[in-house]
């Protein structure tokens, strides 16, 4: 059988690979399915790792360099494992002029992490985003998928500490 | 669904609506949802049942954006058009008890305030009035009637002529005449053509498209199918930001419902026209709002732009002639077909017809989404509709067009808003974000904020943008920290000129706009940073 007809097997028998494969199959395993495949990969595994990228490249028959290129180009994709909890601070214009800088400073002071970093205990990842479109509620942050609005550094800190209690 | 079936559904829905005693609408757009409006809806549903209303007498339903996002969660009660603001689940019983009596004054918003009365709603006509997840609601408000007219009674050329007559221009910011774009694609050689809806609303501070997609998704689909028929395309893509999960969910529901009822797919409305739409998610790259970068992203590549020509209308997605229009542009199509191009062209100014949706945010009392006729002055928008600046502060500037736009000072507030006037003021119409700044904002700091944005969002393909934005950001930093020298100002202006004139795409070409406009109107703020430096040097000597 010629090499290009061989079935590509996922890196392991982890069931999550089936979801990634299904996304690609739905789009005909064509190279144009790349971004959608990376979205599914990140949603199911939390981040993009090397075996995942190589699997996607093989199935879509795209050079791994192009897959790596797309994975690093788009801001939403991350190649680092994420913490147990996430806090995404909006740094759009309305949030900026309403004090999102103060929120980030406060997180750095209390949690010791800058945007893009995860606390050493792997508990919290801090990220930034360019506008969630909730400018009427500025400044906002999305903590574990829940939007927190009209934040002050104190309110955000309280929210993050509340998470610590639940986790503990 | 055939034309008669559409009418039957519309009649049935209108009948049901008029037989109800009351209807409580809870805003379920992202902004109010962030304030737990879903909990509020549950509380209202319980209160309605507890006070003995059956489902025929009173319904509690989710609706799209009610506009005044800053005062959410919002609830409206029909009949009577009563609006309640900042409603908590604990207020539910009181609101239901007031259904057949005087309204709850404590929560009521004045529906006669200029924020509501001075708007002219075409794109947003259904926002806050229909349940975005129910296609029947859209049909009851004339939904898909334009599509059935187009498919059964009009030739493609007539559709293009009607859109051209309306004078509609692209609402994504550049303002290219929509009719002309469609005509170019229709005349392009080849049988395979594609329609793309740009829903990659990346400007920070802009949330009009999010609001439209979350409030009335079928309107955008209808516009796309009509465009497909007009230019001879059978395939469409919606490229939507992944940061808008609710908009994506609403679009998916709308697509599924439209397909199930024969308003998308094969033989639409009993005609022989076939059209399919797929959703593609963005992945957080601002540059993908640029049309050629967007097309690259749909093709699974890095979102980098390419030189034009060829324009996408000649060679777009996979090389096929492609219509790319913004969400708001498509949302205008159905009303133009229903009411005629002449009706639309009566609204607005000489060169900018119709209305424009704006997102008001920043230091302004009434934050939210509004729609006004083109040609309204900035003062009317900010002080009448927006209610002016809160906390007794003074107005300083309004920023339009996001990172590609500029800051407009007080003495130009009486300028009527259209594509040309905003450009002449050194800003742009952009997609419609308006951020109001008060006297506490430093314009140099704002310029640096936008430059930082352009620097991180630059795709890196062309050198002027990749290197120029870094250098300009560094220079602006010197001004913010008051350590700039006169030579820095000269260098900054020279770089603005260079980056603007030599960058490959709109991102780089417009990146200097926030700097140039603040230099033009707020130059003393830059010079103040210089003076402090000269003094320091003088002191040292």
Structure summarized in a few sentences:
The complex is a heterodimer of chains A (168) and B (541). With 168 residues, chain A is α+β, with helices and mostly antiparallel strands. Chain A is 45% helix and 11% strand.
Write the layout of secondary structure elements.
The complex is a heterodimer of chains A (168) and B (541).
Chain A: H1 16-26, H2 34-45, H3 50-60, H4 64-73, E1 85-90, H5 93-97, H6 100-111, E2 124-129, E3 141-143, E4 146-148, H7 153-167
Parallel strand pairs in A: 1-2
Antiparallel strand pairs in A: 1-3, 3-4
Chain B: H1 3-19, E1 22-27, H2 30-34, H3 37-50, E2 58-63, E3 75-78, E4 82-84, H4 92-97, E5 108-109, H5 114-117, H6 135-140, H7 145-153, H8 156-166, H9 178-187, E6 194-199, H10 208-215, H11 217-231, E7 235-240, H12 245-260, E8 276-281, H13 291-298, E9 322-326, H14 327-339, H15 341-345, E10 355-362, E11 368-373, H16 378-385, E12 395-400, E13 406-409, H17 419-424, E14 433-438, H18 443-457, H19 463-480, H20 486-502, H21 506-510, H22 513-521, H23 523-540
Parallel strand pairs in B: 1-2, 6-7, 6-9, 7-8, 10-14
Antiparallel strand pairs in B: 1-3, 3-4, 4-5, 10-11, 12-13, 12-14
Helix pairs in contact in B: 7-11, 7-14, 8-9, 8-11, 10-12, 11-14, 18-19, 19-20, 22-23
């Amino acid at each position: 059988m010629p090499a290009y007809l061989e079935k590509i097997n996922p890196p392991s028998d982890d069931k999550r690979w089936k979801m990634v494969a299904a996304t690609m199959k739905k789009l005909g395993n064509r190279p144009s399915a790349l971004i959608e495949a990376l979205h599914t990969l990140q949603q199911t595994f939390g981040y993009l790792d090397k075996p995942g990228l190589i699997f996607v490249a093989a199935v879509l028959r795209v050079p791994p360099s192009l897959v790596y290129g797309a994975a690093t180009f788009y801001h939403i994709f991350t190649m680092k494992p994420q913490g147990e909890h996430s806090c995404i601070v909006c740094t759009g214009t309305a949030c900026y002029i309403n004090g999102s800088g103060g929120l980030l400073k406060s997180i750095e002071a209390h949690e010791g992490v800058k945007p893009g970093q995860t606390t050493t205990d792997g508990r919290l990842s801090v990220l930034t985003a360019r506008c969630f479109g909730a400018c009427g509620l500025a400044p906002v942050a999305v903590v574990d998928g829940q939007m927190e609005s009209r934040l002050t550094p104190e309110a955000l800190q309280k929210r993050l500490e509340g998470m610590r209690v639940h986790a503990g | 669904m055939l034309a008669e079936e559409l009418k039957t559904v519309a009649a049935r829905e209108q009948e049901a609506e008029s037989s109800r005693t009351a209807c409580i609408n809870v805003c379920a757009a992202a902004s109010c949802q962030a304030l737990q409006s879903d909990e509020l809806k549950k509380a209202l549903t319980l209160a309605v049942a507890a006070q003995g209303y059956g489902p025929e007498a009173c319904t509690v339903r989710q609706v799209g954006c009610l506009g005044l996002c800053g005062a959410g969660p919002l609830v409206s009660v029909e009949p009577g058009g009563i609006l309640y603001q900042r409603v908590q689940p604990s207020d539910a019983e009181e609101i239901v008890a007031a259904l057949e009596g005087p309204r709850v004054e404590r929560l009521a918003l004045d529906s006669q305030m200029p924020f509501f009365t001075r708007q002219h709603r075409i794109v947003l006509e259904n926002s806050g009035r229909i349940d975005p997840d129910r296609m029947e609601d859209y049909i009851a408000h004339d939904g898909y009637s334009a599509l059935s007219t187009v498919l059964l009674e009009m030739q493609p050329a007539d559709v293009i002529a009607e859109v051209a007559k309306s004078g509609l221009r692209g609402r994504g910011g550049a303002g290219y005449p929509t009719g002309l774009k469609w005509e170019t694609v229709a005349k392009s050689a080849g049988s395979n053509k594609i329609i793309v809806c740009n829903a990659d609303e990346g400007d920070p501070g802009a949330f009009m498209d999010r609001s439209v997609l979350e409030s009335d998704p079928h309107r955008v689909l209808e516009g796309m199918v009509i465009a497909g028929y007009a230019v001879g395309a059978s395939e469409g893509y919606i490229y939507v930001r992944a940061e808008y999960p609710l908009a994506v969910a609403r679009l998916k529901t709308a697509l599924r419902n439209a397909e199930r009822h024969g308003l998308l797919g094969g033989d639409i409305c009993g005609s022989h026209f076939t059209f399919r739409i797929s959703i593609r998610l963005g992945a957080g790259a601002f540059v993908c709002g640029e049309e050629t970068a967007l097309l690259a992203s749909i093709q699974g590549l890095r979102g980098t732009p390419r030189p034009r020509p060829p324009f996408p209308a000649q060679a777009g997605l996979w090389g096929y002639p492609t219509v790319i229009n913004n969400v708001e542009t498509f949302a205008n199509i159905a009303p133009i077909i229903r009411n005629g191009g002449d009706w639309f062209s009566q609204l607005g100014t000489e060169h900018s017809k119709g209305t424009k949706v704006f997102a008001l945010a920043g230091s302004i009392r009434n934050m939210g989404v509004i729609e006004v006729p083109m040609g309204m002055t900035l003062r009317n928008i900010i002080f009448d509709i927006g209610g002016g600046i809160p906390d007794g502060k003074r107005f300083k500037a309004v920023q339009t067009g996001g990172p590609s736009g500029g800051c407009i000072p007080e003495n130009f507030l009486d300028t009527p808003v259209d594509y040309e006037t905003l450009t002449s003021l050194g800003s742009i119409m952009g997609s419609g974000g308006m951020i109001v700044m008060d006297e506490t904002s430093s314009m140099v700091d704002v310029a640096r904020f936008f430059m930082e944005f352009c620097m991180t969002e630059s795709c890196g393909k062309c050198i002027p943008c990749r290197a120029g934005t870094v250098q300009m950001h560094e220079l602006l930093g010197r001004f913010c920290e008051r350590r700039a020298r006169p030579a820095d100002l000269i260098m900054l202006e020279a770089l603005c000129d260079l980056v603007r004139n030599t960058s490959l795409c709109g991102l780089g070409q417009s990146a200097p706009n926030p700097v140039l406009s603040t230099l033009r109107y707020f130059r003393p703020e830059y010079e103040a940073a210089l003076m402090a430096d000269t003094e320091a040097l003088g002191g040292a000597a």
